[in-house]
Every structure is written in C-alpha cells, then in structure tokens.
Amino acid sequence: MAELLWDGYCPESRLQDKEVRMRLNTSDLFESEATGLQIRVIYGLRAVILKERGKGKFRSVPCYAHTEITYLEALCAEEDNLKAGKVFESQEELEAYLTQIKK
Q1: Is 73 helix (H, G, I), strand (E, B) or coil?
Q2: CA-CA distance, 7 to 99, in Å (whole number)?
Q3: What are phi and psi for residue 92, nearest 5 degrees?
Q4: How far is CA 9 from the centre of its chain?
Q5: Facing residues of 77 across strands?
C-alpha cells in the first residue's frame, strides 16, 4: 500500500471533501483554520499529525502550508514528544487516528 501524502491542506477536512488551509501558529506548527488540527513538518521526511489541537493563536503575518511546502510529505501519527510514528497507508487508518485525538 502507498502512504498518504500531505499537500498543505487540512487532512481532516479533506476527508469531508473540504479544502481548508493550514496556517503557521505561534508554536511554529501548521494548524487548521477550521479544526485546530496541528501538523509538525519534518522536511523531506514526514508531516506529523499531533495529538493536541491548536488554540487558534496564529502568527500575525500569515504563512500557509500549501504555499510553503515544496514537495509532498508522508502523513504520520505523533508518537511521543512530536516524533514521527506510524505512517498512514489508508484513509481508514487516518480516520481512526483522527477520531482517537478528537477533543
């Protein structure tokens, strides 16, 4: 199976056929403007979906993931301390993880 790749938009919203931007927050993480989902990018390796949701505290000068990433990163779950864990290989795996980390 192929790994799921991140294109800079909110993967949780994509599952609902919505295109929602992810914006850099004050913690230097990309955060969904709609769901608070946070992603830490390890460039060239992974896009780690964090367990904790953001609080909507964005940088004053907007920086959007879909305009900043230069190539697609493999989506994966957060293991511990922002480290990359399991790479998602299906939408079902991604949905199960997102359900687990919902508020």
Answers
A1: strand
A2: 21
A3: -65, -40
A4: 8
A5: 49
Domain ranges of the chain: 5-101
- Its sign, for the CA torsion 51, 102, 75, 9, is negative
**pTM reported for the whole predicted model:** 0.89
Closest-CA residue to 39 (of 90, 87, 76): 76
Backbone angles phi, psi at 101, to 5 degrees: -100, 5
Structure tokens at 101: 């980390």
Tens of pLDDT, residues 25-61: 999 999 999 999 999 998 777 899 999 999 999 999 9
- Adjacent-strand bridge partners of 22: 32
58: which 2 tokens? 């964005």
Backbone dihedral angles phi then psi of residue 32, each to the nearest 5 degrees: -65, 135
pLDDT exceeds cutoff 80 at 80: no
Per the CB < 8 A criterion, the answer to whether 83 and 48 are in contact is yes
- Tokens read off for 78: 């957060």
